[in-house]
Amino acid sequence: MKFVEFNFDLIINSFPLLLLGAGVTVKITLMSVAVGVVIGLFVGIARISSFRLLRFLAAVYVDFFRGTPLLVQIFLIYFAIPVITGQRMDPFVAAISACGINSGAYVAEIFRAGIQSIDAGQMEAGRSLGMTWMQTMRYIIVPQAFKRVIPPLGNEFIALLKDSSLVSVIGFEELTRRGQLIIARTYGSLEIWFSVAIIYLVMTLSISRFVAYLEKRFKTDDKH
Amino acid sequence: MINIENLHKSFGEAHILKGIDLHIAAQEVVVIIGPSGSGKSTLLRCMNYLEEPTKGKITVDGIELSGEANINKVRTEVGMVFQRFNLFPHMTVLDNITLAPQKVRRMPKGEAETLARELLGKVGLADKADAFPEQLSGGQQQRVAIARALAMRPKVMLFDEPTSALDPEMVGEVLDVMRSLAKSGMTMVVVTHEMGFAREVGDRLLFVDEGRIVEQGDPREVFEHPKEERTKLFLSKVL
Questions:
Q1: Is residue A3 part of a domain?
Q2: Residue A35, Cα to own-chain centre: how many angstroms?
Q3: How many domains does chain A have?
Q4: Is A125 in contact with B76 (Cβ distance < 8 A)?
Q5: Cβ–Cβ contact B63 with A under 8 A
Q6: What is the radius of gyration, based on Cα positions, of chain B?
Q7: Which candidate from B50, B89, B104 shows the least CB-CB separation from A130?
Q8: Which of A131, A147, A221 minimises the CB distance to B104?
Q9: Residue A119 belongs to what domain range?
């Protein structure tokens, strides 16, 4: 076996650039999660609404974005949409759109399951007091469902952070792309990919800790 | 107050209600008894459209129930108390009671809270305003549920087996609240297995079996001299 030299100086020198990339990764993840949660809440509710058309459209959305690879979705948004519009797509907009819309499909299923896990008697109680379906959803069902979906939502957040590495293919300079660029210049594959992996790990572990904390906090006032 | 004509209800193949005609006067207390699966709960739930009738006509306080168009309006006049309480677990007792008056009746928060505290006093739980439902016993939860329904100032109260999920020692406190509500002149429809309550508080007793009203009349009369064979058979099992 060849003696492998591990170049610590390279890691130390590249670290500021990698951290810059990690900052961008956090930024697209947070923005995509925000987009995903908003889309997911409405699509999730649409999935169980009494309007057949709304249910159908929501199901199509969920099936399409869960049933096709995120990488292909990124290509679709970045390369295929400009063919139609005739305008160049901004990589940042493309990255957030692809990740957010994709995540929305998964979050929709999380919300749908969370809402359906709430006892049917809650909806009946709200409706029998004269509240509309929407009011009952808003004040009674969704607040209870929110507490239950914190753990799966945390998992989705972590998955999205890792999947955001895929936007490196459209040249968007997040953590993975930064790593690639440094390697192209220095040939330090071992050191850089190792560093990149560790930075991802630190980020995902921090999120799961934070989610565990939230879960504990919200558990105190809801045993249902 | 409530008028029901030729009400039918089917769940798929199962024909649960097979032609119910019923008129309930204002201030009347009607108690519905019958074996499980007889359709008595379904009948009650049709009265505020929690179940949509398959056929027939229901009028509440002069308004014919016709689906989403007017159902929220009618429901503000019809309070409902469930077997399993269905309190909102993420809210305090006070918020449980004040939510609907604020959102539906557009009542200011302060006014809703004053009303809620007054009603909590009436059901004997003035000190529980800030508790969460899970901190209360079953009997206390059901009394809160009654207060919550009353906060909408309904003209009719529907009770769907309100004591069936309670430990025996808590049945009395809930029946006491219902008794005083009946005395205050509230129009009430009560599905129950509490025969003592039916006899004492009911103005009229309905015996429902296999989707039909088999017999009805003054509770004492029906209990002591049932006319129909099926009523006799049922009463011989429960009394």
A1: no
A2: 9
A3: 1
A4: no
A5: no
A6: 18
A7: B104
A8: A131
A9: 8-223
